[in-house]
């Protein structure tokens, strides 16, 4: 099991156990973990950013993105907050799926898929190909390598 998988599973269980929120969707997870989510106008091609300051986390999400990709970006930034609590991360950009991906970006991408896939019913997930998963979340095909079941 990878670090991203372990942290995604633990975060999902924590939000589920809290019973405060109706679901374990990324927005509910952020509320449960006291992470502020701020919609913000970001330049074209920039999707989100997480800022850590004095143990407080804030996620900025681009106004211009819609569900379901918005859920993926929020999960990605949630992954940074959970796995990299001492680091503010640069913006998640359209180009963050190319050849060289920094370790923390790879981990956040893996976290995002694992976290989102935990919300799907097991039977539904079994019927989905990797391409179906990418289409379901509105994520570019280049992200296929980050899918963790």
Could you name the key traits of this structure?
single chain; 149 residues; alpha+beta; Arc Repressor Mutant, subunit A; 4-stranded mixed β-sheet; globular
CATH architecture heading: Orthogonal Bundle
Give helix % range: 40-55%
- Please provide the count of β strands: 4
Q: How would you sum up the major sheet?
A: 4 strands, mixed
Low-confidence stretches: none
The CATH class, by name, is Mainly Alpha
- Secondary structure category: alpha+beta
| Count of the domains | 1
Beta-strand portion reads 5-15%
Question: What's this, in brief?
Answer:
The protein has 149 residues and is an alpha+beta fold. It has helices at 3-18, 26-32, 69-83, 103-117, 122-127, 130-137, and strands at residues 36-40, 46-53, 56-62, 92-93.
General description of the model:
The protein starts with a helix and ends in a 12-residue tail after the last helix. The mean pLDDT is 88. The protein contains 6 helices and 4 strands; from the N terminus they run ααβββαβααα. The protein has a single domain (3-141), classed as Arc Repressor Mutant, subunit A, CATH 1.10.10. Strands 1-3-2-4 form a 4-stranded mixed beta sheet, covered by helices on one side. It has 149 residues and is of the alpha+beta class.
List strands and helices in order, with pairings.
Blueprint: H1 3-18, H2 26-32, E1 36-40, E2 46-53, E3 56-62, H3 69-83, E4 92-93, H4 103-117, H5 122-127, H6 130-137
Parallel strand pairs: 1-3
Antiparallel strand pairs: 2-3, 2-4
Helix pairs in contact: 1-4, 2-3, 3-4
